[in-house]
Specification:
Pathway: Purine metabolism; AMP biosynthesis via de novo pathway; AMP from IMP: step 1/2. This protein is α/β, with parallel strands linked by helices. The chain has helices at about 15-20, 75-85, 105-120, 130-140, 145-150, 150-170, 185-195, 205-210, 245-250, 285-290, 310-320, 360-365, 390-405; strands at about 1-5, 30, 40-45, 45-50, 65, 70, 95-100, 105, 200, 215-220, 260-265, 270, 305, 310, 325-330, 340-350, 350-355, 365-375, 410, 420.
Length: about 425
């Protein structure tokens, strides 16, 4: 079985928790795109793990892999491994693998990212972690790969080949070009290469051999559908393709191998940074959702913008990903709100439309058309089954399911593993 999981909104939907919950049924859990600009929080009992690169399946018996479609900051990976080791979780090369073709985020990528964002008159909201510039180098064939990092002579040779162009780019943005070949940084990366060399693997081969043997593979995406570099709200998007189809291309697995595509969606919607959010709430209701839902970014700590559930955006996410099922998270956050509103269409230039317009400026001009549903007073955090939910909470789930035309198979009412149940 080959299952792909993606976020159906703008990221932060709770993918890490769902992956953690499901990973006991999977032999391999694989990250297929993005970098440490994404973050996920996994809570097990009293232990909370905030991660950016390592897939959530590390807590159970799954082998976790980082695929070649990602861009990897080796310092961040080492820090996460050290953090887990302090908690008694040691990730050996038998537990964790990184593809040899994975692009490495170098210090000059981080420098260029910060310098470029500071120059923009209209900010994108980048995390300034070098993600976009590492992907630029991948496309330009100027990348440094994991295999290069683990080979001291090859790494030095690649840096020598790239140094002049990187120094010129940094100098043009009034930065310090010495960061490209600074001895201290080069030696640090050589050390990281030595440490991570035993973890190098061929992810495509591992996955395909596992599927041949009847084993189960779970592919985990980062960010969310509407941050996709092609199909998202350009230019307020990430630097990689976040939709389910990119899992096949990025991991080297044929699309005929896909069994299931699971979308993760919040019971409302959030967005970090800039870009259109048609149902955004800037009033007391929005602030309440933000506080109750603890809507602050794992990676940046920035407050997330909050809004009511947006069906037009979900319709597009369903088309882009081909979801076979959905997981609805953070239903508990909507308790004590009455009514609970759902955006069913938009008003744009005097017309009613039920699907997002192609242009980002047009989406920003859309005004939500709502249907109101009755709320519920009950605290849901102790609920462990659909039948135990208040009647109006059940009706909300069934309403969304009918409107989306895709079954909601998981419901989450809190951050802990036991607070997510299967219908």
């Amino acid at each position: 079985m080959f299952t792909i999981i993606t976020g159906a909104q703008f990221g932060d939907e709770g993918k890490g928790k769902i992956v953690d919950l499901m990973s006991g049924d999977y032999d391999l859990v694989v990250r297929f795109q993005g970098g440490d600009n994404a973050g996920h929080t996994v809570k097990v009992g009293e232990d909370v793990y905030k991660l950016h690169l390592i897939p959530s399946g590390f807590l159970l018996d799954s082998r976790v892999l980082i695929g070649p479609g990602t861009v990897l900051n080796p310092e961040v990976l080492a820090q996460e491994m050290d953090m887990l080791a302090e908690g008694g979780i040691v990730l050996t090369p038998e537990k964790l693998g990184v593809d040899a073709k994975t692009s490495i985020i170098m210090p000059y990528h981080v420098e260029l990212d910060g310098l470029k964002e500071s120059r923009r008159t209209e900010k994108i909201g980048t995390t300034k972690r070098g993600i976009g510039f590492a992907y630029i180098d991948k496309v330009a064939r100027d990348e440094i790969r994991m295999a290069d990092l683990a080979d001291p002579e090859r790494l030095k040779r690649r840096l020598s080949e790239l140094a002049s162009s990187k120094e010129a780019a940094i100098r043009e943005l009034d930065g310090d070009p010495s960061i490209v070949t600074r001895e201290e940084l080069v030696n640090r990366y050589l050390g990281l290469g030595r440490r991570l060399a035993p973890y190098i693997t061929d992810v495509s081969y591992e996955i395909n051999k596992a599927l041949e043997k009847g084993r189960n593979v779970l592919a985990e995406g980062a960010q969310g559908t509407h941050l996709d570099v092609i199909h998202g709200t350009q230019k307020f998007v990430t630097s990689s393709s976040t939709v389910a189809g990119s899992a096949c291309a990025n991991l080297g697995v044929g699309p005929t191998k896909v069994t299931e595509v699971l979308g993760i969606v919040k019971a409302y919607i959030t967005r970090v940074g800039e870009g259109p959010l048609p149902t955004e709430l800037t009033d007391e209701t929005g602030r309440k959702i933000q506080q109750v839902g603890r809507e602050f970014g794992t990676t940046t700590g920035r407050a997330r913008r909050c809004g009511w559930f947006d069906l037009p955006l979900l319709r597009k996410a369903i088309y882009l990903n081909g979801y076979t099922s959905l997981a609805l998270t953070k239903l508990d956050v909507l308790s004590q709100l009455d009514p609970v509103r759902v955006c069913v269409s938009y008003e744009l230039d005097g017309r009613i439309i039920d699907y997002p317009p192609e242009g980002t400026a047009e989406l920003a001009g859309c005004r939500p058309v709502y249907e109101d549903l009755p709320g519920w007073e009950s605290d849901l955090t102790g609920v462990r089954s659909f039948d135990d939910l208040p009647g109006n909470a059940q009706k909300y789930i069934l309403y969304l399911e009918k409107k989306m035309g895709v079954p909601i198979t998981y419901v989450s009412v809190g951050p802990a593993r036991e607070q997510t149940f299967r219908r």
